[in-house]
Amino acid sequence: MNEHEKNLDHLAAKYSQEMVEVIGKYVKGDDKKVEAAQADTLYTKALGVLQEHGLYAMTLYLLYRSGNQLGADTKQYNNAEELVATQTMGLLWRMLGEDDLAELNVKPEQSIGWDVLNERKHKDAILSHFSDHLCASDLGRLLFVKELFAQTLTYARYHARALRE
User: Fold this and answer.
1) What residue segments make up the domains of the chain, in order of their start?
2) What's the CA gap between 130 and 74, in Å, rounded?
3) Interatomic CA distance for residues 137 and 152, integer angstroms
4) The pTM of the whole model exceeds 0.85
5) What is the domain class of 3-160 according to CATH?
6) What stretches of the chain show up as alpha helix (H) in DSSP?
7) Staple 12 to which of 28, 42, 109, 152, CB 3.0 to 4.6 Å?
């Protein structure tokens, strides 16, 4: 196992654990919680888009599904899908800034928390980074990030399935 594969698995496990923390959080209406099955569905769909259409398409999919709500108060989000998509994109974005990936030069120029991710200017910055910096860069870097995200979403799916009641 080379150094990138080791980092890949460690980061994928770490971030997938953070992704499933959204399960059980309340969204609009005090009686609606994010269920494990809902999170699993979004992770599965995002993974499918990533595998079939690529990194940029998955980014567009998650940003589209995230809606336009802002803030860390999960009760502001209209439904579970918006909250899960917002948090997932935010975590994937943050993952790119990890020290373990420094030599790949994939770190975003700006830090964007998931609580403000849905501002138009932040969505534009994310799309610009993915199109100009990752998708237009060398193929090895692009494939590494794609594999890292695929592994993370796969682990998140299994975490969510393990948490189903």
Assistant:
1) 3-160
2) 26
3) 22
4) yes
5) mainly alpha
6) 3-19, 36-53, 55-65, 80-95, 120-128, 139-163
7) 152
Residues forming a β-bridge with 33? 26
Could you give the C-alpha distances from 127 to 17, 20, 34, 36, in angstroms and in order?
Answer: 25, 24, 27, 28
Task: Return all residues near 142 (Cβ < 8 A) that are at least 6 apart.
Answer: 55, 134, 135
Q: Residue 26: phi, psi to the nearest 5?
A: -85, 145
Max CA separation in the chain (angstroms):
48
Give the model confidence (pLDDT) of 90-123 as tens digits. Answer: 999 999 988 888 888 888 877 776 667 777 788 8
